[in-house]
Design brief:
Tetrahydropterin Synthase, Chain A, Helicase, Ruva Protein, domain 3, single chain
Length: 308
């Protein structure tokens, strides 16, 4: 058997963009034949996936699954929104969300998890999917919530299929009340989070550095009015209260009734179910948030291809 050198692996990797271990395996399988190894990688979908890896994937789906006291949220990206309507892609996202509920939010561990049906790992299944569908894809993030007593509720906005859409929310409620009675409140709170985008549950949960930055900005704005320092301080405190109402879940106006604060709505719900209710945590994924999307000039691309 031919010796597989580091130089051979590098050559193959430069040709295909495939991973180092995949290149080494391909060379081993083909007895050191580089061109044969290229074909081997192509047949496995690995070279095709690598060539697409540089393209921006900001579309795709957010998937949510719950099981009474547990829930998981995942985001899997693709290049175009057409892929979100592909049933194979939808099945992959739904399956990965179910696996995440068991594995947690560690992407490395999730990627190395066996995919159901003997189809390798989650990572290898994603690679196969890239080859079949022809777009760059990425398992971007995953999160789980759980409570010892209570319920984890989910909400999907811009729903594409069951449990799949463009915005996904999980809300964990701790309570000794009947879970069936908590379900409606949990869904309403998840809908509220999707609409109002809170940064924290309580004022005390906010990052102190973020609060200090906001205070400094508000102070400079207030001083620009030319008012005395004691008046400036009162202005800043009033504006900070407005800031808290904008970013803290319990201080926000509940979108369901448009009048009560979320905290008051929870108090009323607790009286109705006969037990205290606490929001233990929440998580919200908005598809593609934070991904820098490429701006393309289609006419210029066509002209370039025509050599103009």
């Amino acid at each position: 058997m031919a010796e597989i050198t580091a130089a051979m692996v590098k050559t193959l990797r430069d040709k295909t963009g495939a991973g180092m271990m995949d290149c080494k395996k391909a060379l081993t399988e083909t007895g050191g034949d580089v061109e044969g190894a290229v074909d081997w990688l192509r047949k496995k979908g690995l070279a095709a996936a690598a060539k697409k890896a540089g393209r921006v994937a900001a579309e795709g789906l957010v998937g949510a699954v719950t099981d009474r006291t547990r829930g998981a949220l995942v985001e899997v990206n693709a290049e175009t929104d057409f892929v979100a309507r592909n049933e194979t892609f939808q099945g992959f996202v739904r399956t990965v969300a179910g696996l995440a509920m068991e594995m947690g939010g560690d992407l490395d561990a999730l990627g190395a998890t066996a995919y159901p049906g003997g189809a390798g790992t989650v990572a290898s299944q994603l690679t196969d999917l890239i080859g079949k569908i022809g777009e760059n894809m990425a398992l971007r993030r995953a999160a789980t919530l759980s409570v010892s007593q209570g319920i984890v509720s989910a909400y999907i906005h811009n729903r594409t299929a069951s449990g799949l859409g463009k915005i996904g929310v999980l809300v964990a409620l701790e309570s000794a009340a009947d879970p069936a009675k908590l379900a409606a409140l949990g869904r309403q709170l998840a809908m509220h989070v999707a609409a109002a985008a809170p940064q924290a549950i309580e004022i005390a949960d906010l990052d102190p550095a973020a609060v200090e930055r906001e205070r400094n900005v508000l102070s400079e704005q207030a001083r620009a009015s030319g008012k005395p320092e004691n008046v400036v301080e009162k202005m800043v405190e009033g504006r900070l209260r407005k800031f808290y109402q904008d970013v803290c879940l319990m201080e926000q106006t509940f979108v369901i009734d448009g009048e009560s604060k979320v905290g008051k709505a929870i108090e009323r719900a607790a009286a109705d179910v006969g037990a205290p209710i606490k929001i233990a945590d929440f998580v919200c994924y908005r598809l593609g948030e934070g991904i820098e999307r490429e701006e393309s000039d289609f006419a210029a691309e066509v002209a370039a291809q025509l050599g103009r």
